[in-house]
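TL;DR need structure tokens for one chain.
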Amino acid sequence: MTLRHRLGWLLTMLLFPGMLTAQTGDMLTRILNGMQQAQTKITTECGTVTETRTSKLMTKPMVLHGRFCAEGSDRFLLEYFAPNAMQIRFNENYLNITAGGKTEVMNVSSDVRRVQSSFMGKNSIENLENDFDITAQENNADFELRLVPRSAMMQHKLNYLVVKLNKRDFLPRSVEVDGKSGVNSVFALEITSTNTKIPENTFEVIKTK
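>> reply
TL;DR here they are.
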């Protein structure tokens, strides 16, 4: 799984916190209701992120530290600090990845539409049930959702996805993405502010190369 795909799943969990609407049990229903209520209350969120990346080809885990901000369902900033400096900005249909003084510009409108149809559209229940087996459990500090792909398209890229949510406010605590490439990324999240005004230029992107 490429960096773009791993980041795509992280963005999905942060920008669409009320996405899952499948009905597979009382606990999951309770979790989903909490997520949807959180979505209606929170317009912006910022915090810190620590990504721990592992694979069989790496002699030791790679740990990256950074910050993030999200606004609504279409604007996002993720910035890693030195020595692994990188900046990822998403604004509507465009994704910019800046590293080493170079910026990669991508029009991801088709990816965004696919995510919206799978997780937010009127057929989201059917789409999710077709794409994933979803299980939920409750731990001491959090709720945990585990998504295992069923569709061939998802199985080609992803082994599984695990999302942990704070039991108090249903906001994400961590996102684990295990890809077919052999790379596993765990994004540990600490949300430090919600519903604050974020400077407009935070989400500025380049739309053409």
